[in-house]
Design a protein that fits this description.
The protein is an alpha+beta fold. Helices cover about 20% and strands about 30% of the residues. The strands form 3 sheets. A 4-stranded antiparallel β-sheet has the order 2-8-4-5, with no helix packed on it. It has a 3-stranded antiparallel β-sheet with strand order 3-7-6, with no helix packed on it.
């Protein structure tokens, strides 16, 4: 806050209108969010695909332990299974989109996340792939370090950033007065969301 006050005061003396970035770290972060599992932080989608061949003698797919993604998916962190889908695989390795099924809504599927089990009866014979899609915080830190990058598309994260500004002004009336006198715009000149590539992540 003191740095902002110095800058605003000097800008006023020089006849300059001063703009500020949306947060003190880059990409955007909020110091008050310290839990890496907070859903307001940048989120990644991770998937695990499992092959299943439905035959006349075996139309039922079953797992006694829900498959989890490999690689950068962190089993020590909290996560959420957001979708389980299935699609029939063609002879050329592609998928027929018309066969895609949301197993979380399909009457022929039973998913018990507490027990970690799934049972599904395929609608017809053939090669199928079941996709398990999980959401998890990426744990990416702002470039200056010390705080986690927030989810730039989250209403709740945006509100946390707004609250950070309002709380800062509320606690420092002098800063608020200087900003109201000479503060210009707040901006984000770039989002920089691609700083951590994850091949097995869907997003």
């Amino acid at each position: 806050n003191q740095t902002m006050k110095w800058a605003l005061d000097e800008a006023t003396k020089c006849g300059i209108t001063l703009d500020f970035t949306l947060s003190q770290m880059w990409p955007l972060s909020v110091p008050a969010i310290t839990d890496v599992n907070d859903t307001r932080l940048e989120q990644g989608l991770f998937y695990k695909d499992v092959a299943f061949t439905a035959t006349d003698n075996q139309m039922v797919y079953q797992e006694n332990s829900l498959p989890i993604p490999d690689g950068n998916f962190n089993t020590e962190m909290e996560s959420e299974l957001v979708a389980v889908t299935a699609a029939q695989k063609q002879s050329d390795g592609s998928y027929d989109s018309t066969t895609a099924i949301d197993l979380m809504k399909d009457q022929n599927a039973t998913i018990d996340q507490t027990a970690g089990t799934i049972t599904w009866t395929a609608p017809k014979e053939g090669d199928w792939t079941i996709f398990y899609i999980y959401r998890q915080s990426t744990g990416v830190m702002a470039k200056a370090g010390g705080t986690y990058v927030i989810d730039h598309t989250s209403k709740e994260a945006t509100q946390a950033l707004i609250d950070c500004w309002e709380e800062g002004f509320r606690k420092d009336p002098e800063l608020q007065a200087l900003y109201e006198k000479n503060g210009g715009s707040v901006y984000a000149d770039s989002l920089e969301l691609g700083n951590q590539k994850k091949p097995e992540a869907a997003m």
